[in-house]
Amino acid sequence: MKWYTYKQVAEILSVSVQTVRYWMRTGQLSVNRISSHTVRISQSSLDEFMAKSGRNTSESKEPACVEK
Fold first, then answer.
1. In this model, does residue 64 exceed pLDDT 60?
2. What band does 57 get if pLDDT is binned at 50, 70 and 90?
3. Cα–Cα distance list, 22 to 1, 5, 28, 64, 68 (Å)
4. Which domains does the chain possess?
5. In whole angstroms, what is the distance from residue 36 CA to residue 44 CA?
6. pTM of the model
7. What do you get for the CA distance between the two ends of the chain, in Å?
8. Phi-psi region of 19 (alpha: psi -120 to 50; beta: other; left: phi over 0)
9. Which residues in 1-68 belong to E strands, given as ranges?
10. b/e map of 40-59 (b: 16 or more CB within 10 Å)?
11. How far is CA 16 from CA 1, 5, 8, 26, 39, in A?
12. How many angstroms separate the Cα of 34 from the Cα of each of 8, 50, 56, 61?
């Protein structure tokens, strides 16, 4: 399974880091908390968010993923 940082998700979706953090804070984007200051977003969570929000995966950039 692929895991992403919120910065990588911002790059994939071509939005600001603040936007991704807002989505995380409001529960629109599911995250896995690793520690009090570290979260990772799974590929499945990102896919689900993109489907719900109508974002097209083919337009997204693909950075290197983080192994967990």
1. no
2. low
3. 24, 14, 8, 23, 23
4. 3-58 (1.10.1660.10)
5. 22
6. 0.77
7. 9
8. alpha
9. 3-4, 32-35, 38-42
10. bbbeebbeebbeeeeeeeee
11. 24, 13, 10, 16, 17
12. 16, 23, 28, 25
pLDDT tens digits, residue range 3-14? 999 999 999 999
Where do we find the tokens 């919120």? Answer: 6
Instruction: Give residue 27's identity as a one-letter amino acid code.
Output: G
Measured distance CA(38)–CA(29) in Å, rounded: 15
Which pair of tokens denotes residue 50?
Answer: 């993109």
Instruction: Read off the tokens for 29.
Output: 């984007």
- Six token digits for residue 42: 């799974």
